[in-house]
Amino acid sequence: MSKNKVLNLRDKISGNEVDLSLSNLSEVPVKELSSFPKATAVDMSCNNIISLPPEFCSLTHLVKLDLSKNQLTRLPDDLGNLVNLQHLDLYNNKLTVLPVSFSQLRNLKWLDLKDNPLEPGLAKAAGDCLDEKQCKLCAIKVLQLMRAIQEDVDRAREKRLLKEKELEKKREAKQREREAKEREARKQEKAEEKEKRRKEYNAQVAAAAAKAQQKKNEKKKKNGQAADKNVAAKPAPKPCRSLIGLVFKLLLLLMLGMVGIVAACQLTDLQKEAVCVPINAAVTDGVSWVKVQEGVARQLLLNLSSAVKELVESSQTTKN
To answer: Which stretches does UniProt call biased (Basic residues) (predicted)?
Structure first.
């Protein structure tokens, strides 16, 4: 409203009452009314008000309110904030229901809801308001009904909140379960990755060991082949020749020993000893035997030579 209208509103105030009836209002001057907190009784009857703005519920100083003969189809949800309201006239509007917060108007002592298209339950509770007694009874019964509705709403809200809480708990439980599964999956994945790395490491170690063993075997094989070549290059001595050589050596040593003994007995002072007497005798006999054999051998050689000569001559004669 403009400044002039504010001044006009001031002109409409008389004591604690503000008379805005028959003012052709389509909206409630909430801002202007809030400027006059001492004006506790407001008459806005016989206007064209369709609805009350939410800000109207801030006029908590109101004690008496007349909104009869308007076009109200609904009241604001927070109407219950008008805790000081004692007298409310809603005669001849288009209301069908009241806000649940209506139950909070604990100081309400007078109410008129005649000539409104109220729902059956609300209409039955409101009854008629033809005199002071009926209007007071209307206030009592409507408050009782709205309190019952408020309780039902509260129970429904509590039930809904409980259900939402249970659903939230279930969601949290599912979330925890999902997180636990994810943690377990990550743990399993890490374990599998660790096992995979361990197997890869073991495989690498085994491969390195096998490679080292292969090199060792190849080296050993090469060394074995070289040894085989050396063995092949050096033929093993024949056992028989080794045995003959050993016997020959023994005989040679024996002969040398005997020659030594004979020499000792022939050339040294030992020849007069009793030990050397048979040896010297044997040597003398041997020398004699050798000389005899030498003569025999010479005779054999002469005979052989003569025989060969005769054979040669005979052969030449035969050829001629």
So the answer is: 213-223
